Amino acid sequence: MSNFLAIDTSSRYLTVLAVKGEKKVLKYLNDCAMKHSVRLMGVIDGALKEAALTPAECDFFAAVTGPGSFTGIRIGISAAKGFAAGADKPLLAITSFDLLAYNVTDENFYTVIDAAHGHYYACGYGRGGEVVFPPAYVSAEEVASFGKPLYGFEELPFENYTRLDAGSCLFAAATENAHKASDTLGALYVRKSQAEEGRR
Q1: CB of 113 within 8 A of CB of 66?
Q2: FRET label pair with 47: which of 83, 124, 143, 180, CA 20 to 30 Å apart?
Q3: Domains held by the chain: number
């Protein structure tokens, strides 16, 4: 099994996973909104120490690239890039949608992420895990009309919706995609940030 460090700062949650061989150390903060930059490095340090893992021993560094919190995504990506550059190791990008999808066994479903103000980020998956509904910024009415099982991390007001544990999803997504590690890591933005919208 690969040694790696994985980071998710794409939402109000903060998840850090350090894996060394068969040892897995998960650090999960339930509500870290607007505090990722303050808490992240301390949480990473704790996870690495508990796993007896050094950055040099990691085979790759992973970060969840969104969609989600614009600021949070940038913080997680920057941290992963910093570790990768220092250790001369590759990077693994995991989208928020895939983070959910790799923990679902249904063949036709949607992953849904709260985008605030009555809107959501959504992505639909079909048989074999192929994307059949590309990432989109949609209204609550559109989500309700999908007519398929829905999965996400937050408490959302939809029928056929299942809430998954954000902390436990990172391991499956990182291990399943380890072979995709590369030298690039970029954010997935489905819409413009509020600041960018305000400049229009």
Answers
A1: no
A2: 180
A3: 2
